[in-house]
What does this fold into?
Amino acid sequence: MALITVYDDNYYMKLAMQEAQIAFDADEVPIGAVLVYKNQIIAKSHNQTELLRDVTAHAEILSITSASSQLDMKYLKKCSLYVSLEPCIMCAGALRWSQLGRLVYAAEDRKQGFMRYGKELLHPKTKIQYGLMKEESEKLLQRFFQNKRQK
It folds into this structure.
């Protein structure tokens, strides 16, 4: 009999997608992130660049800041970050400096994603996984940008 784990990658990515939906509803680019430490959610966030009038208020950056404060440590070596879209190079740089243990993202970002420049932008010990809930993320992003073009 297979062991059922409540807190698995699917669970956390669903929460990141819920954060992306919150961003969508707020007319922000729908990207959500959830940062996890020892199966505990330390931070949840979504893009808030419009609300905060801050180009750096990406879901990943907000999660790193919140998690570092909550855990009272600047390095997130034992943490996993679940993001609905591949991080940009700015966020990859922040993830590198935080020494994130693991990055899981849903959809690729062929235009702005860090992987265009190579996974070397992340810390060498950061493990990367992608594709989980890819279709859901892509659909939400497509809907958002179609709505923008119609306005």
User: Anything to note?
Assistant: The beta strands are 32-37, 40-46, 79-85, 102-107, 127-130. DSSP finds five helices and five strands in the chain. The first strand starts at residue 32 and ends at 37. The helical segments are 9-25, 49-52, 59-71, 89-98, 134-150.
